[in-house]
Design brief:
With 380 residues, the protein is of the alpha/beta class. The protein is built from 17 helices and five strands. A five-stranded parallel β-sheet has the order 2-3-4-1-5. β2, α4 and β3 form a beta-alpha-beta unit. α16 packs antiparallel against α17. The longest helix has 41 residues. The protein is globular.
């Protein structure tokens, strides 16, 4: 029977290391997971947390395991940057203060910090003592893109666990094997989710997300004939649809609070509410980031056709539209438009309005791909 670490797809060395750490009882106080987007660091962090808190080292059947899997365990806390471009000092101080509190349900607490490469010097200084000597019932799991991008004072206090880059074709093959999806759908989902196998599996299970992808691709097909008003209309529609999954997140959070209200103190409930606010913000950024990922996959396909490699197109279900766009533009212009998506991704991290980001992105893509003549009225 597979254990909880089998969910860490494409990272056999990481699986064996974390499994051995738990089985030997030699779990350290602080880890730094480093690797690119889509390398399954997040899935590994939660699998590790599940094994740490479970009395049977990650049985996947007990209440503790199920709560961690559903992201509902009160002793597993997730943090991501709340400031413009990084962590706030107040955010780190709040985390440090929280580590001094006793666990709510388990014997230990696990703190997962995403994007610690965005942890600045001042915020890091507020964290160093806790990172070096946290309470005995605390395990800290930090995640960053590369070891070099994380402050040396943070790196030196952690056990570094490197995650390898998983090529898109390998990620799609893993997804096909584990979900039963066709190779076509697996490739589409991997591209739409920035290479993340875990998120791609969730994407394929959601009719809402697949429908959203179709709408994004319709908009991309219509940009050549779109006037300025069309672009604004498309942008507003995409932002509304991108945020639709947040309703499910809010309902989930309300259910968690209702479950905990009877036995938690007001202080503990406030902590959960603060965590909910952070996770909702992170979910919003992720959802809008997926919009950009779908747009990137479409532009990539346009580039493949322009480059004379039509056999490399991923979004086969909209190939005619992609080939039509390729006839109206060039490889260089498609590459320039693709770069605009990376700029939009960075803008979202800096708390720029999502509406403004998508507005600017669609305008930029239209102008770069087709030039200022693209002002005829379009209707879809």
């Amino acid at each position: 029977m597979s254990d909880v670490f089998e969910s860490i797809f494409g990272q056999s060395a990481v699986r064996e290391f974390l499994r051995a750490s738990v089985l030997s009882g030699k779990v350290s106080h602080a880890y730094l997971f480093t690797g690119p987007v889509g390398s399954n660091k997040n899935a590994a962090a939660y699998a590790f947390a599940q094994a740490i808190l479970c009395k049977d080292q990650g049985c996947q059947e007990c209440d503790s395991c199920k709560r961690v899997m559903r992201r509902k365990h009160p002793d597993v806390r997730f943090f991501s940057p709340e400031g413009v471009g990084g962590y706030l000092v107040e955010q780190i101080r709040s985390l440090v203060a929280d580590t001094a509190l006793a666990p709510i349900q388990a014997e230990r607490k696990v703190y997962i910090l995403d994007r610690v490469d965005l942890l600045g010097t001042q915020a890091a200084n507020a964290f160093l003592k806790t990172l070096e000597e946290p309470p005995s019932d605390v395990v800290l799991i930090l995640m960053g893109r590369t070891r070099e991008s994380v402050l040396p004072t943070i790196v030196s206090r952690c056990q570094v666990v490197p995650f390898r880059h998983i090529p898109a074709h390998e990620a799609a093959a893993i997804l096909t094997q584990n979900s039963g999806a066709s190779p076509l759908l697996a490739n589409i989902a991997i591209q739409a989710c920035g290479g993340s196998i875990t998120k791609a599996a969730e994407f394929l299970r959601s009719n809402e997300r697949m429908s959203f992808r179709s709408r994004v691709l319709e908009v991309m097909d219509s940009l050549a004939l779109a006037d300025d008003w069309d672009v604004l209309t498309y942008s507003e529609d995409l932002v509304v649809k991108a945020k639709a999954p947040l309703d499910a997140v809010r309902a989930f959070q309300e259910g968690e609070l209702a479950e905990s209200a009877d036995f938690l103190s007001k202080g503990a409930l406030r902590q959960i509410e603060a965590r909910h606010k952070r996770s909702l913000s992170a979910a919003a950024i992720e959802s809008l980031g997926q919009t950009n990922a779908i747009i990137r996959s479409w532009l990539r396909d346009v580039m493949m056709v322009c480059a004379g490699c039509p056999e490399l197109v991923i979004n086969e279900d909209v190939r005619p539209a992609i080939e039509d766009a390729a006839r109206k533009t060039s490889l260089g212009r498609a590459a320039q438009a693709l770069e605009s998506c990376h700029v939009a991704d960075k803008a979202l991290l800096y708390n720029v309005s999502p509406q403004t980001c998508i507005d600017a992105l669609l305008y930029e893509i239209r102008e770069v791909l087709y030039g200022s003549h693209s002002t005829s009225k379009a209707a879809i």
